[in-house]
Amino acid sequence: QRVLLLVASDVDALCACKILQALFQCDHVQYTLVPVSGWQELETAFLEHKDQFKYFVLINCGANVDLLEILQPEEDTFFFVCDSHRPINVVNVYNDTQIKLLVKQDDDLDVPAYDDIFRDEEDEEEDSENDSDGSEPLEKRRRFEEEVIERTMKRRQRREWEARRREILFDYEQYEYHGTSSAMVMFDLAWIMSKDLNDMLWWAIVGLTDQWVQDKITQMKYVTDIGILQRHVSRHNHRNEDEENSLSIDCMRIAFEYDLRLALYQHWSLYESLCNTSYTSASLKLWSVQGQKRLQEFLADMGLPLKQVKQKFNSMDMSLKENLREMIEESANKFGMKDLRVQTFSIHFGFKNKFSASDIVYATTSLMENIEKEGPETTNFIKALDSLSRGNLDKLHQGLDLAKKQLRAIQQTVASCICTNLVISQGPFLYCSLMEGTPDVKLFSKPVSLCLLSKYLLKSFVCSTKNKRCKLLPLVMAAPRDVEQGTVIMVGIPPETESSDKKNFFGRAFEKAAESTNSRTLHNHFEMSIIELKTEDRSKFLDALISLLS
Fold first, then answer.
1. Which intervals carry biased composition (Acidic residues) (predicted)?
2. Residue 186 and residue 12 in contact, taking contact as beta carbons nearer than 8 Å
3. Confidence at 528, pLDDT banded by 50, 70, 90
4. Using H for helix, E for strand and C for coil, what is the string for 229-297?
């Protein structure tokens, strides 16, 4: 039996896919891999392959809609869904014949009880047949009246039940959020089957780091999951370090570390990394002259010469590199950057190559959303997938170079949006729209890049605004999607607060606003909070959104 793998376009999905491919290889399972970037592609792929395949595996797609409703599969088709999107559609949860959900045991799904949302059809229409046994008309009338009363009561109960059901489902489906990373779920599966390898563990780490880089999970969840993975890391990577030949040239070793929260700094210069990491750039307000001054003061406080800071990290003096983390952290505390260190893992291939988990995430994301070469979407997907294998270091380095370009583009766009006051308060949310012709605007027609930009922009805006109310608002961001077709891509992200639970209400709000104004929208992304919209419908759509959320 061949299996069809349908994989979404995000790094966590790619990592889960790599783990599953390795497991399939162990058991000689034949499969076909189809990348899908949205619902339309998912449906098309299903229709094309439904005659040849009975088993479908969906990675990071499919959990949050009623699959059977959308795909209308035959009775003998089975779906295995491993998806971190929450909430999971209730029909998928309670359908145990055709849909198998892969979730971790301790994941709290908060699914409403079965009886609260489903009712058997039989217990409604059991109107008792009028048995005419020729008894007294009076008797008959009394029985008839009782039946009418009983029926009215039943109808009333049903109406009440339906109203409650709507309320329960509204509460359940109102917010979109993310569960455990799919790569971690797949790794768990491998571990239960005793087939977990160090490579699979690394992919699980990258999948989790992707959720953290994309700001999809809370700090608490991240730290908890890091703890789970740390136990596996020490199980797989303990070697007696004192033996002469404990490291061969082609081995790989994973290590836990408290690393700096600076993007790609080991493959860049420290200066560039400080300027293009959203955390440091927002804290120091680097888009202003004042901020640039503070950056110089920050470097002076550490006692690092500019010449050293601006050259490649690899070429910095060893004496400076040794206690670099401590030096940076100490100075960062004085400048109000208290969370500059983060728990993460790094990987060593042989002697020369060392990468941190976030390096891989940035590199793979930028390969996947590469806009430089016009070609079929799938080539980018395959390249990104390949860059995760340790044999393909050249692809990984290509990804790192692209990632630097993307981070620079994001940082420059953030700076220009803030300096030209493009972020405006619309009442219940902040709104920012990129115009056609802005530099790098093409990059931001891609969903992951646009989301990263929006998150960086909101962080920076919160640091730059004096208005206390604006600091607590969510952000809606729009960018041109396709000029010829006249469409924009729009994303909504939750407020940037310390205690944020990362739950996003824009998915539902977008749907309602589009419905009420008959806007021509396309809800094609697996993230409900990203939509595409005709440019001329934008103003009425926004008006509806404002009145809906006010």
1. 120-136
2. no
3. very high
4. HHHHHHHHCCCCCCCCCCCCCCCEEEEEEEEECCCCHHHCEHHHHHHHCHHHHHHHCCCCHHHHHHHHH
